[in-house]
Amino acid sequence: MNLGIDIGGTYLRYELREDDKTVTKKRLRSSDIGLCEFLENILKQEKNITHIFISYAGQVNNGVILDAPNINIDRHNLQTYIEGKYGVKLLIENDVNCAVLAEAKAYDVKDICAVYVGTGLGLGVISASALLRGHNNIAAELGHIPYKKTPFTCNCGKNNCIELFASGSGLLKWKKEYTLNECLTLQQLYENKNSDAKKLYSDFLEALLYAIGTTITIFNPEIVVLGGGIIKHNKNLLNTINAHIKTYAMPLSLENTTIRMSQLEDATLEGAFLLKDTNV
C-alpha cells in the first residue's frame, strides 16, 4: 500500500492507495500534529504501507528537511529515521516541485512552470522535461526573491521577500498592519471602500504580476499554470493577469507562452505519487 501526503502551512492531506485505487483520503490541520509524529501514528495503524511519498511546503534535499518557513519541523532527517525504524521507502520533495510534475503530465509538455499561491508563494519548473533542482534542491524559490522592504519579517528571516505581498501569510501580516478584519477575502479587499484595503489588493496584484513576469522572463515556459488556495478561490485573477502581464515579462519570452489555471484537484498530492518515477 502507498501513502501520499501533501503538507502545507495550513493543511496536511493524505491518501492511501492500493493498486492505484484510493482506500482512504483525509485532511487535517497541519498545526495540529508534526509530520514525523503523524507518520509514526499512521504506520502503527496501517501495517501494509510499503512506500511513502511526501509533497512538502519547504526546502528538502536527499530526504532531509532543510527549512520550512510556514511549518513546524519535528524531525529534519525524516527519510533516514522512518526508513530505518519502519522499513518503508520514503521520498519527499518540495510541494510545488510535486505540483509541476503533475501539471506537466496533465498538459503533456516539456517546458512548464507552476506558480502556486496559498499560505506561501511557490514555483516549480520543468525545462526540457527535467525538473529544475539546483545544487541543494532549492532552486526557483520564487517567494523569497527580494522585492520591497516591509515593517515585518518573512518566516525565512528576511524583510523584503515578494511572498510578504503575494501570499496568504503576507496578506494576513498586512491586514494586521493596517488593522483590517483578518477574515476579509481578496475579493472583499478589492470591493472595499477603505483605502488601506484597496492598497493591499493593489500591492498583492502587482507583486503577483511581478513574480509571474519574472518567471516567464527567466524560464521561458510554454505554459505557466496557476494554482494554490488563493488562486483557486479567485479565478477572476487569470483574466487580470493576462491583461497586464505584458508590462512585467520580456516580450520575446512571453511569445507563445500561455497562462492557465490548474485543472487538477490535488496537483501537489498527485505529484507526490509521481515521485516514484523520478530520481529524488
Description:
The chain has helices spanning 35-45, 78-86, 95-107, 168-177, 186-191, 195-219, 229-232, 237-244, 251-254, 267-273; strands at 2-7, 11-18, 21-29, 51-56, 59-61, 64-67, 89-94, 112-117, 121-127, 130-131, 223-227, 258-261. With 280 residues, it is α/β, with parallel strands linked by helices. It has 2 domains: 2-94 and 267-277, Nucleotidyltransferase, domain 5 (2-Layer Sandwich), CATH 3.30.420; 98-261, ATPase, nucleotide binding domain (Nucleotidyltransferase, domain 5, 2-Layer Sandwich), CATH 3.30.420.40. Helix 3 packs across helix 10. The radius of gyration is 19 Å and the shape is globular. It starts with a strand and ends in a 7-residue tail after the last helix.
Q: Concise description?
A:
This protein is of the alpha/beta class.
Which stretches are poorly predicted, pLDDT < 50 over at least 5 residues? none
Q: Assign the CATH superfamily of the largest domain.
A: ATPase, nucleotide binding domain
SSE order: EEEHEEEHEHEEEHHHEHHHEH
Distance between the termini: 20 Å
Structural class: alpha/beta
The total number of structural domains is 2
